Amino acid sequence: MTSVSVKDLSLNFGNISVLKDLNLEIADGEFLVLLGPSGCGKSTLLNCIAGLLDISDGQIFIKGKNVTWEEPKDRGIGMVFQSYALYPQMTVKGNLTFGLKNAGVANDEIERRVVRTADILQIQPLLERKPSQLSGGQRQRVAIGRALVRDVDVFLFDEPLSNLDAKLRSELRVEIKRLHQKLANTMIYVTHDQIEALTLADRIAVMKGGLIQQLDTPHAIYNHPVNRFVAGFIGSPGMNFLDGELEVGVSAVVKIGEMPVPVDRYTFNGSGRRTGPTVLGIRPEHIAFGDSAGAMPFSHEVDVEIVEPMGSDTLVWTRLDGQNLSFRVDAERPLQTGDRVRIGFDPARASLFDSATGNRI
């Protein structure tokens, strides 16, 4: 069953087109992440779904009801913002109950919802404290709790963890995932953090310039990006891009300078094979090093230029035909600048992009 449906949605600010004919179907109980760089339109789309912005064209349905022109309070949503937006003069319990009291919810029902929410978020000991007495992580839990007490079907999160430090972000990310597993409500989550997107989402909508570039599972987006933008935006460290020439004859190869990379095992999309300038993309973790590199369909000796210890592993930078290339090695493998090593990879794990359009071949 569809929980949220966006049909042909456009939003213009004067002559500026911000969102362009967007279509999006979100299943009941799905965790969908809107991911993209600043200015791509992800928060704007969320605000349109929430009713905080009037759209220029299109329709929005929530649980089958056309809510395009409904007030936010009538859409059956709970929203968590980047800022905590808590009432400083009220206790945690006061913040949780304020909206319910204004809506005329019975006192016993308010108490039931507060107890349930405090139990889910483990904030029972904080109910009589004021926001000034809470840490950043505790305040964000309360902000999430204020949405939960509304007992709605759809929750909207607008970069709720971006104000927290790395450790707190990691901890609350786990808590949000547990929350979704426990509640099974539909959740739409906006972030520019790809780690949040990959770890939380059932599906990710990668956005750029007011358009959805790719909508798919984290695994599909990571391993089969539809264009170079998606490939470059997902992954840390980023995908390596090597300019080359696709030559298709008896066999198919991408020539990186004078080095032929066999791509017969590569699965070409509906555009078919063709000859011409091509970009080969390969992720650092898909590049083998040392003895195992020699068994790969493509291997080559390179010079180590930069070594970046990352803790659990090491990121090594080199050049292939004068083009930057990074690969990962075990942290226990001693490498130094100037070392000559062999690397290799299976082109079946690579992505090929048209040099002109950036689209996957």
Automatic annotation (TrEMBL):
The keyword Aminoacyl-tRNA synthetase does not apply. Its main location: membrane. One of its GO terms (biological process) is carbohydrate transport. It comes from the Bacteria. It is a peripheral membrane protein. Keywords: ATP-binding, Nucleotide-binding, Transport. Residues 4-234 form the ABC transporter domain. It is found in: Cell inner membrane. SUPFAM superfamilies: MOP-like, P-loop containing nucleoside triphosphate hydrolases. CDD domains: ABC_MalK_N. One of its GO terms (cellular component) is ATP-binding cassette (ABC) transporter complex, substrate-binding subunit-containing. InterPro entries: AAA+_ATPase, ABC_transporter-like_ATP-bd, ABC_transporter-like_CS, ABC_transpr_MalK-like, ABC_transpr_MalK/UgpC-like, Mo/tungstate-bd_C_term_dom, NA-bd_OB-fold, P-loop_NTPase. It holds the Pfam family TOBE_2. One of its GO terms (molecular function) is ATP hydrolysis activity. Belongs to the ABC transporter superfamily. This is Sn-glycerol-3-phosphate ABC transporter ATP-binding protein UgpC. The lineage of its organism: Bacteria, Pseudomonadati, Pseudomonadota, Alphaproteobacteria, Hyphomicrobiales. The gene is ugpC.
